[in-house]
Amino acid sequence: MTAADLPSQDQQQYQAFKQLGLKLDMSRGKPSPEQLDLSNALLNAVDGYKAADGTDGRNYGGTVGLPEARALFGELLDVPAAQVVVDSSASLSLMHDVIMYALLNGTPGNAPWVREPVTFLCPVPGYDRHFAICETRGIKMINVPMYDDGPDMDLVEKLVAEDASIKGMWCVPKYSNPGGVVYSDAVVQRLATMKTAAPDFILMWDDAYRFHHLGAEKLEVLNILEACVAAGHPDRAFVFASSSKVTWAGSGIAALASSPANIAWWTKHSGIRSIGPDKINQLRHVRLLKDLPTVEALMEQHAALLKPKFNAVLAQFEQYLGNVPGVSWTRPQGGYFIDLVTPDGAAKRTVALAKEAGITLTPAGAAFPYGNDPKDRHIRIAPSFPSLDEITQAAQGIALSLRVALA
Ligand code: PMP
After folding, report:
1. For 213, which DSSP code?
2. Containing H/E element for 157?
3. Which of 92, 147, 140, 155 is nearest to 124 (CA)?
4. DSSP codes, 23-70
5. Which residues contact residue 236 at a Cβ distance below 8 angstroms, ignoring those fewer than 6 apart?
6. Distance from C-alpha of 343 to C-alpha of 258, rounded to nearest angstrom
7. SS3 category, 1
8. Is 302 left (phi over 0), alpha (psi -120 to 50) or beta?
9. Cα–Cα distance, 406 to 402 (Å, whole number)
10. Which string of DSSP letters, residue by residue, matches 259-311?
């Protein structure tokens, strides 16, 4: 085979793949049914409706969450329970509400954001639903490049010092979506200490993958709330987490952790929105998850199901893309995604070719504000949901699609 033959051979392989008539949806990072099964004990986990303090879980009330649920997340997040609120079935709604309350009412002691233009810094590639909140609520977004140890901090420091409209920044500090980046201690320190032109600047610290290790080493990130207190900015960070990818993604419990002032502020506003969260769900989660060691043991079981799928994708990419110039991909130590990076201008075409071959991917560009990847290079791969066979086939199909896109 000569080099000149290569495109046609790629075409042939791609066409043969298409003939298989597969239908594979890899658009979202959902847990597989086998992962959901790991928590089926939740179905019978409620042995009563009374919380430890006597609260009747069946009734209204308990805006901040049951004491035992706050204690559990306090232990999980390494934060005093008094600085934790447990509310809602998923953390995205808590993030959304923090931004809405800040826009309409202002953070403690500050004017409502909505009176002036509001800008957020967005490390890219990042999580599309973060960016969707900003876009739909009229918050301008600025891309910040992501490095191996976190966002480009020289740029972040410069921007926040100069521009008082920058009120916030999205951060997924561990195993980021989709790049799998883990923030270094130095990056966390700089985020906590940096001088911001806006006195009410906040960090939206989305700790979605805190326990979701894939590698042998359980990587740790510095405690942002403690770092902010030490830096004299105690109200800077709002930390979010949930049990979505620990137990059931659609029926979990979520937590917000922050300074005492921010928790009081949150409670005031969330008490207007709801007369209290689903405390029976909190009770059964506390019964099942118990404490940090129990959660870590459950996450090992998730990892045992996820690792072969990640490895299968990596092996297919190595086989079909290993020698293709300009193509690379991440080898995450945790989280839910692999970021496939194409040469400039090839991601959209690859996703379209994969679609023709029966593989639905997240739209190219989704990992960027306004759905616009300026160089059209990033494709988010979500290996969790399909079976091992399906994901292996899908990874091959994506690789073939990319080869054809480049031909
Ligand atoms: N944050 C990130 C970074 C995510 O990737 C996801 C799920 N894809 C979420 C939040 C959603 O979390 P929850 O289910 O708690 O709303």
Report:
1. B
2. helix 153-162
3. 147
4. -EEESS-PPPHHHHHTTGGGGG--S-SB-TT--BTTSS--TT--HHHH
5. 192, 201, 202, 203, 228
6. 41
7. coil
8. alpha
9. 6
10. -HHHHHHHHHHHHHH-S---HHHHHHHHHHH-SHHHHHHHHHHHHHHHHHHHH
Q: pTM for this one?
A: 0.97
Question: Cα(179) to centroid of ligand 1, in Å?
Answer: 14
Instruction: Verify cis geometry, omega within 30 degrees of 0, for the bond prior to 125.
Output: yes
**Residues ≥6 apart with Cβ < 8 Å to 188:** 150, 173, 221, 222, 224, 227
Using a 6 Å CB cutoff, which residues line ligand 1? 29, 90-92, 127, 172, 177, 206, 208, 242, 244, 249, 254
Please tell me the distance between residue 255's alpha carbon and the centre of ligand 1 in angstroms.
12
List 256's β-bridge partners, or say none. Answer: 85, 240
CB atoms within 10 A of CB 184: 17
User: Which tens digits make up the pLDDT trace of 345-360?
Assistant: 999 999 999 999 999 9
Question: Which residue's structure tokens are 């006195």?
Answer: 199
Q: What is the pLDDT of residues 196-255, one digit of tens each?
A: 999 999 999 999 999 999 988 999 999 999 999 999 999 999 999 999 999 999 999 999
CA of 74 to the centre of ligand 1 (A): 19
| Strands 119-124 and 166-171, bridge-based pairing | parallel
Those residues with Cβ within 8 angstroms of residue 399's Cβ, 6 or more apart along the chain or in another chain: 316, 317, 319, 320, 321
Chain centroid to CA 40: 24
Q: How far is the CA of 209 from the centre of ligand 1 (A)?
A: 8
Counting Cα atoms < 13 Å in the Cβ hemisphere of 322 gives: 7
Ligand 1 site-directed mutation target among 146, 206, 248, most atoms within 8 Å of CB: 206
| Nearest residue by C-alpha to atom 11 in ligand 1 | 92
- In ligand 1, the atom with minimum distance to the C-alpha of 206 is 1
Q: Which of 259, 345, 337 is nearest to 79 (CA)?
A: 259
> Residue 39 C-alpha to ligand 1 middle, in angstroms?
18
Q: Domains, the chain, ranges and CATH?
A: 3-30+296-406 (3.90.1150.10), 46-290 (3.40.640.10)
Q: What is the ipTM of this complex?
A: 0.99
